[in-house]
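Re: that backbone. Tokens:
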């Protein structure tokens, strides 16, 4: 008794030919089992070789197609057939041949796949082996049969490729001559079919595992929204670039790109439009990149470019311009045309200089500076001044140390009434005279400190110093409504308990809160508007006044004047410098009129000469600030000013030493 097949001479019908059928389907009850022991041994040996080969493929990463081709070729050596083929079959896709031992077998495989008819379909559907010892007398395959006969096929034996309870296809054995296979040959063929099946299942599982791990790796290194590299991959590429840079005499540049007012796109049009815009920006970036460049999305609306092997700094500048140009055309997303601008910071490492995360930090700081002071232009690429180009990695730490060691200082710049040029208040401005680097721009300090809680410490310190200075100058020198204006970063406003910090500072110093003005820029205010607005309202209830700083830079909108709780508008220097004769006069005039209508006070910043002073007075700005009146000055020197007399060009003679 074997598993399925019997090789018998039929006594009932007295057939002289061998019939091969499954036991269940046998049409005879009585039979002899005949065995050719020598042939069985030979088959077993050959089968053992095939199984050994197969076992080896299980432990290699050999591709599926190669394994199946090899097995199919071996089957023809082992069994008395002229060709073999494998067809994969599924309910949805029908038969699809994947391998054949020779051209003739390939032809028969094609016929079955093409017609959707043949023993492979029957084997697949029944899950049983199908033997056709003589194609001439078998009428089960009306389409395949005649076509295959015409191509010289005499017999075909097909074995299902089993997977669990189902099938994935069939192994076809073709012979030009007619006649059955012996019992052992049938058993061997069936074993081979199981081997092919195991091979395919194993290879498929391996391919799926490989694909899953490749997918996992890809996901871990890419931004899911845009498909661009993420921060992790960017840092990897930076490390690789560093190795390459060490061996070359080329430049490496990094660009930090931050979309302007992206939050407004989300707020006005919904997050789906915001997402679509980010994708459109990413696609535009990809199209302009050289193959060796990297464009990464590292968070929300922040992208970073890494460009290597540049000949000189001029080439780095050129790439900066190209990135800038990417924003010239509007983005069409979800049926909307969105004109988007960006602030771009750039940092370059020359030959021999390390390519590290420091480049990202520097370009980020440059971007921040440009966002704050972009002088009304739409897109600007900014670099940190050459003197500060090599910001140390621990720059933030240095600032913290400077604060602790008392190296930071506050300078005060008078703000004057335009009607009589008498001082009405001062603005407190952070100063740091670095022992090696000299004067460090406050925006660089603030920009770096804002990336951590350090900004809160610095902000609180400036606030305390300013309140203390006001008290030290005394009520005679600065009677109410003399004001002390202190700059506040938006991050400061929304982190920690800023309201309490202010309340504590005025209480401790004994300053009238109505003398305190807090200056903040609107482009940072809108980033976190809900929370910021609440704090602003609380502060105003305390009596503190809020000033909108740098109005007119980049993308200020008159609508902010109505939306934000503001008492004072400071018109930015970039508008004021061109107020004499330029179209900016109209803008300054419009802003002033709107602000005055809304009951606000208007201060013009950066007045450098008499013409500008006269023009803004004519327009109707109540207050002015600038080098024309006085430069930012130490607290002790401010005290020397004769508060009652008008400020001429520069500080009064008594102060200029
Ligand atoms: P800001 O608040 O707009 O301050 C005015 C800036 O204009 C100051 O630059 C001042 O020195 C400069 N300035 C004043 N008059 C003139 C003029 O006639 N011509 C020119 N060309 N410039 C003039 P500074 O001190 O470099 O400060 C830059 C920015 O740094 C400030 O802009 C402010 O945004 C920020 N900042 C300064 N101190 C602090 C601070 O304590 N906290 C925060 N958060 N930011 C600060
Ligand atoms: Mg200010
Ligand atoms: Mg300003």
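Recovered sequence:
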């Amino acid at each position: 008794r074997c598993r399925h097949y019997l090789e018998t001479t039929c006594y009932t019908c007295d057939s002289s030919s061998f019939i091969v059928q499954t036991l269940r389907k046998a049409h005879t009850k009585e039979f002899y089992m005949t065995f050719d022991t020598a042939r069985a041994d030979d088959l077993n040996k050959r089968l053992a070789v095939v199984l050994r080969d197969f076992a080896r493929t299980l432990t290699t990463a050999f591709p599926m197609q190669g394994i199946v081709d090899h097995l199919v070729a071996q089957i023809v050596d082992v069994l008395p057939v002229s060709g073999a083929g494998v067809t994969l079959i599924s309910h949805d896709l029908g038969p699809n041949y994947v391998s054949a031992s020779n051209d003739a077998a390939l032809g028969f495989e094609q016929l079955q796949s093409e017609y959707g008819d043949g023993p492979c379909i029957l084997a697949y559907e029944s899950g049983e082996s199908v033997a056709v010892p003589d194609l001439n007398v078998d009428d089960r395959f009306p389409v395949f049969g005649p076509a295959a006969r015409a191509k010289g096929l005499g017999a075909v034996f097909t074995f299902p490729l089993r997977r669990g309870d189902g099938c994935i296809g069939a192994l076809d054995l073709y012979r030009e001559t007619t006649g059955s296979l012996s019992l052992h040959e049938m058993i061997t063929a069936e074993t081979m079919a199981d081997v092919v099946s195991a091979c395919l299942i194993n290879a498929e599982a391996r391919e799926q595992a490989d694909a899953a791990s490749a997918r996992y790796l890809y996901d871990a290194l890419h931004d899911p929204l845009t498909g661009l590299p993420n921060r992790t991959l960017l840092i990897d590429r930076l490390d690789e670039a560093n190795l390459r840079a060490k061996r070359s005499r080329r430049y490496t540049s990094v660009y930090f790109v931050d979309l302007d007012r992206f939050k407004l796109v989300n707020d006005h049009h919904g997050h789906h439009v915001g997402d679509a815009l980010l994708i459109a920006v990413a696609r535009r970036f990809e199209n302009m990149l050289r193959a060796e460049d990297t464009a990464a999305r590292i968070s929300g609306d922040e992208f970073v470019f890494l460009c290597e092997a540049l000949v000189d700094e001029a080439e780095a500048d050129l790439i900066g311009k190209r990135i800038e140009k990417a924003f010239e055309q509007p983005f069409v997303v979800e049926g909307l045309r969105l004109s988007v601008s960006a602030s771009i910071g750039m940092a370059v490492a020359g030959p021999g200089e390390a390519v590290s995360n420091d480049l990202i930090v520097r370009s980020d700081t440059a971007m921040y500076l440009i966002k704050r002071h972009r002088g009304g232009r739409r897109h600007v690429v900014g670099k940190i001044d050459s003197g500060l180009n090599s910001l140390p990695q621990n720059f933030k730490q240095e600032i913290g140390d400077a604060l602790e060691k008392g190296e930071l200082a506050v300078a005060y710049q008078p703000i004057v009434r335009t009607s009589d040029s008498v001082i009405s208040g001062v603005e407190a401005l952070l100063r740091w005279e670095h022992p090696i680097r000299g004067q460090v721009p406050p925006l660089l300090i603030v920009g770096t400190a804002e990336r951590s809680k350090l900004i809160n410490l610095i902000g609180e310190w400036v606030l305390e110093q300013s309140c203390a200075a006001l008290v030290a100058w005394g009520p005679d020198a600065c009677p109410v409504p003399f004001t002390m204006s202190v700059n506040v970063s938006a991050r400061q406003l929304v982190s920690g308990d800023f309201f309490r910090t202010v309340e504590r500072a005025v209480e401790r110093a004994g300053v009238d809160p109505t003398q305190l003005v807090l200056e903040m820029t609107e482009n940072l205010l809108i980033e976190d508007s809900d929370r910021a607005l609440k704090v602003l309202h609380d502060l105003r209830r305390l009596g503190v006044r809020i000033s909108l700083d740098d109005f007119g830079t980049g993308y200020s909108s008159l609508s902010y004047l109505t939306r934000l709780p503001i008492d004072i508008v400071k018109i930015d220097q970039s508008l004021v410098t061109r107020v004499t004769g330029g179209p900016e006069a109209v803008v300054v005039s419009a802003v002033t009129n709107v602000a005055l209508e809304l009951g606000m006070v208007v201060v013009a910043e950066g007045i450098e000469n008499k013409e500008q002073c006269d023009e803004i007075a004519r327009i109707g700005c109540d207050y002015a600030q600038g080098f024309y009146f006085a430069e930012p000055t130490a607290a002790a020197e401010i005290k020397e000013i004769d508060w009652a007399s008008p400020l001429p060009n520069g500080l009064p003679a008594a102060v200029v030493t």
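The mean pLDDT is 84. The first strand starts at residue 5 and ends at 8.
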